[in-house]
Amino acid sequence: SQEEAPSTDLITLTRHVLSEGFRLGPAATGDLTLLLNAIQTTSKFIATNVRRARLINLVGLAGETNVQGEEQKKLDVLSNDIMVNSLRASGKTAVLVSEELEEAVIIDEKNRGKYCVVFDPLDGSSNIDAGVNIGTIFGIYHVKGENKGSVDDVLRPGREMVAAGYVMYGSSCNLVLSTGNGVNGYTLDPSLGEFILTHPDIKVPSRGKIYSINEGNSMYYHEPVLKYLSSIKNPPSGKSPYSARYIGSMVADVHRTLLYGGIFCYPNDKKSKSGKLRLLYEAFPMAYLTEQAGGVATTGTKRILDIEPKNIHERCSVFLGSKEDVQDLIKFYEGSA
Ligand code: AHG
Ligand code: MN
Ligand code: MN
Ligand code: MN
């Protein structure tokens, strides 16, 4: 059989984002393109460090605790520093919020731009030392009006984001991005150092066969979650139960959910009253991508993207994924299932 020749028309992330910019016409200043370029570069840099972590003594703890009371890993701190430096230097940002920094960073006048970036520099820290998939999550707002940039510019509902995405450091390095016009996935070609469009227009299947939750917390779960889980594990006769998949890195669990369908859950419960995942830089970007891919993202009782944040590190309950699966879950909250 004849092998197919390699493509001679590579759609790189930069090319793709530029063409989207052109589509915006005169409204596009190119600033978002440049900002996304900075994020691309940081991703490649973090990817390289993740890949070599064991070899260059980057595994293990950094010795400090972050504002959430978590012990920071060396890679958490390094990734945070890489992102802050690069985003500041891009000249396109006004406000930065990171999981690893207690306060929002307000960019000095000399470097100031019009965008605010909220990010989780390294997601899935507990998986680092075992070499399991980890990631970076980000969301982007435009400052309000002609603002210089203040914390108010990021205390806004996720639906006001102009772009969101994540990078997954796994068997390959994948960047998944939405600028409000669907979702596209790119794979890093390490020999070129470029992200190539490999997953155009990602749509989450309307129903899946997988559920993803840390079921070890069952004893704390509220009734609707327990009943929903029971319904998918004990379906009416003739139907197959759902399969369980839980990696413990939100990026990896959401990535699989977007591609294969199903439901990802991190509910609030009797122990964690607001859940675990952070609203600004975990729930919002992932909810934005899920909706852009045709899925649903809810707290169980409310659309995630409609939440008005009160503080930058607040948490929220998360259920997201295939439309029909998440709607089934919502019925248990409404008491109508
Ligand atoms: P982070 O490593 O950025 O602190 O995030 C960890 C999060 C998220 O990636 C994952 O979905 C969740 O924590 C896993 O939590 P459990 O270990 O409680 O299941
Ligand atoms: Mn953490
Ligand atoms: Mn995280
Ligand atoms: Mn993190």
TrEMBL record:
GO molecular function, one term: fructose 1,6-bisphosphate 1-phosphatase activity
GO biological process: fructose 1,6-bisphosphate metabolic process; fructose 6-phosphate metabolic process; fructose metabolic process; gluconeogenesis; sucrose biosynthetic process
Co-factor(s): Mg(2+)
GO CC annotations, alphabetized: cytosol
Domain Fructose-1-6-bisphosphatase class I N-terminal: 11-200
Reactions performed catalytically: beta-D-fructose 1,6-bisphosphate + H2O = beta-D-fructose 6-phosphate + phosphate
Residue ranges of domain Fructose-1-6-bisphosphatase class 1 C-terminal in the record: 204-333
Compartment(s): Cytoplasm
UniProt xrefs under InterPro entries: FBPase_C_dom, FBPase_class-1, FBPase_N, FBPtase, Fructose_bisphosphatase_AS
Pathway(s): Carbohydrate biosynthesis
Coiled-coil ranges from the UniProt annotation: none
Entry EC number(s): 3.1.3.11
Keywords: Carbohydrate metabolism, Cytoplasm, Hydrolase, Magnesium, Metal-binding
Principal location: cytoplasm
Keyword Cytoplasm listed: yes
Pfam family, one: FBPase_C
Quaternary structure and interacting proteins, as annotated: Homotetramer.
Stated family: Belongs to the FBPase class 1 family.
NCBIfam families: PRK09293.1-1, PRK09293.1-3
Stated name of the protein: Fructose-1,6-bisphosphatase
Organism this protein belongs to: Gloeophyllum trabeum (strain ATCC 11539 / FP-39264 / Madison 617) (Brown rot fungus)
